[in-house]
Amino acid sequence: MENKDLEFSLSPVPQSHRNGFWKILAVMLGLTFFSASMWAGGTLGNGLSFTTFMLVVLAGNLLLGIYTGALAHISAKTGLSTHLLTKYAFGIKGSYLSSFLLASTQVGWFGVGVAMFAVPVHKVTGINLYLLIVLSGILMTLTAIYGMKALAILGMVAVPAIAILGSYSVFEATETIGGMEGLMAYQPVQGLGIAAALTICIGSFVSAGTLTPDFTRFAKTSKSAVTATVIAFFLGNSLMFLFGAVGAMTYGKSDISDVMFLQGLILPAIIVLGLNIWTTNENALYASSLGYTTITKWNKNKIVVFNGVLGTIAAMWLYNNFTGFLTVLGSALPSIGAIIIADYFFLNRAKYKVAFKKMTFKSVNWMAILAWAGGVAAAELLPGIAPINGLAGSIILYIILMKSAPLFAAKSVRKLNEKVS
């Protein structure tokens, strides 16, 4: 008997398998509780006053919340993952490009995440580095096999632990710098511009935010999906930025686990670091498996294991050589989400008239490919806030190209008829 795919890798999630608000919130907070956000917060903390930092972070994460909230609404209404939603805009084979980019970056970040846990723990404890890599890679892969249930359970355990232990450490750091007065009086040695600061804030997680539908498609209602997502990206991500900024201002360290090591909180630091990376890595591995399953139609769990083994084996190489490339590659992902938003809200008026299972998709929608490329170019070349340029550029280009295509086709037909007659 064939095993039923309860993760609905290739089909919409039915209402009978949807989850309530708290489970979705736990998963989304687990996604946003990540060391990379702390590093970004530390960069902002080193370049901004505390007041400016708070304004930038709240503004940037509000914009992230709007972007990911729109994707959450679409996925909750349709029950579709990011990879299945792209079929509407990009076509069947066109969606393979977006799925490959999304999945590959997540496998890469999974490997980086494994090393991000193993390296500092090795330095502090002396435990063999490669033993730590293998054990952590195996644990993170095993939980990803169990899909959304494991994501929710781990999130419910990890999120409160990280928030409580991290907040205690930040409180201690705040006391060290002179309390709130010390923080408010802090002035960076070298200032950072607002546009650059917003680019760091939004850009640090907008790529992962593009994968929001992979998780929020399991929400029972659009309201719960959007609310959980906005809370995770606006409040949860802001908390990670705050952890990083206070650590950087006080100790010159962005990651809360590094701060806790300095404070002598060795075991709490290992717990926070492990849970922090575990929740995000599990999400990354899960999302990558959905992408490759969409392309290959292979069993999702086998792909999870393969990706987990690949990421674990390559962890140190990825950590040392591939992080910069992954960041550049990640800049190409937000335009995919922007095109999904444009296709659903602007071209289909917030409702796909034909259900996914009955829909006849194009093979490749070249208008979507062009809009995606134009959005990436806008993010890289135009002045201002790069992620916003990319998102806005893709949406505008996609709408213009899709609206213009029928007019050009009709004009070509008329010219052909005139020649024939």
TrEMBL record:
InterPro entries: CodB, Pur-cyt_permease. It is found in: Membrane. Gene3D superfamilies: Hydantoin permease. It is a multi-pass membrane protein. Keywords: Membrane, Transmembrane, Transmembrane helix. The chain crosses the membrane at residues 21-41, 53-74, 95-121, 127-146, 151-171, 191-212, 224-248, 260-280, 301-319, 325-346, 391-410. GO terms for molecular function: cytosine transmembrane transporter activity. One of its GO terms (cellular component) is plasma membrane. PANTHER family: CYTOSINE PERMEASE (PTHR30569:SF0), CYTOSINE TRANSPORTER CODB (PTHR30569). Belongs to the purine-cytosine permease (2.A.39) family. This is Cytosine permease. It comes from Niallia endozanthoxylica.
